[in-house]
Specification:
The termini are far apart. The strands form four sheets. A four-stranded antiparallel beta sheet has the order 11-12-7-13, with helices on one face. A three-stranded antiparallel beta sheet has the order 1-6-5, with helices on one face. Strands 2-3-4 form a three-stranded antiparallel beta sheet, covered by helices on one side. It has 191 residues and is of the alpha+beta class.
């Protein structure tokens, strides 16, 4: 069944500027600027003011199930942009090994990682962080990496790239549990 018009709204907090032009959203905040393109979604996006508070409205006319789902998706993405420029995102990863200790070298001011001695292999695995993501060692916990950034997509994709470099091949993965795993994800600024 097609609904005549459906919409979702996102509240914009104080200290955050937002621009919407032909479904391109740019968000400016204390941690910098993020932008995202929603041209692939068949929705309308515009800013309006309600009770002195700025809001973004995402609207869909005559939408079926898939297009109605896109409304909430777009709202969630914009909310993540707002959270990114105000608080930032932090992912923690743990090095797991049974016998051969995994060695990590962080280079280029936290934008490049070298992984050595994974399962005793001589091969050096190199992972470049995506733009806006920095990686550092944890001071409190041994064998822990902390990835920080404003864009949740880039931070989480960087963790995935590190994880994929340390997959065990040609062995029983129930026994060989070595690798680098995400242990925690959350906001950079704790409330």
């Amino acid at each position: 069944m097609k609904l005549l018009v459906s919409n979702g709204t996102v509240s914009i907090p104080k200290g955050v500027e937002i621009e919407v032009k032909s479904r391109r959203v740019r968000v400016k905040g204390p941690r910098g600027t993020l932008q995202r393109d929603f041209k692939h979604l068949a929705v309308d996006m515009y800013l309006f003011e309600e009770d002195g508070e700025k809001k973004l409205k995402v609207e869909c006319h005559f939408g079926k199930k898939k297009r109605l789902a896109a409304i909430r998706t777009a709202c969630s993405h914009v909310q993540n942009l707002i959270t990114g420029v105000t608080k930032g995102f932090e992912y923690k990863m743990r090095l797991v090994y049974a016998h051969f200790p995994i060695n990590i070298n962080i280079e280029n001011k936290g934008t490049k990682v070298e992984i050595r001695n994974f399962l005793g292999e001589k091969r050096v695995r190199v992972v470049d962080m995506l733009p806006g993501v920095t990686i550092k060692r944890s001071d409190a916990v041994k064998d822990e990496l902390i990835l920080e950034g404003s864009d949740i997509e880039n931070v989480s994709r960087s963790t995935a790239l590190i994880h994929q470099q340390c997959l065990v091949k040609n062995k029983d993965i129930r026994k060989f549990l070595d690798g680098i795993y995400v242990s925690e994800s959350g906001l950079l600024v704790k409330e």
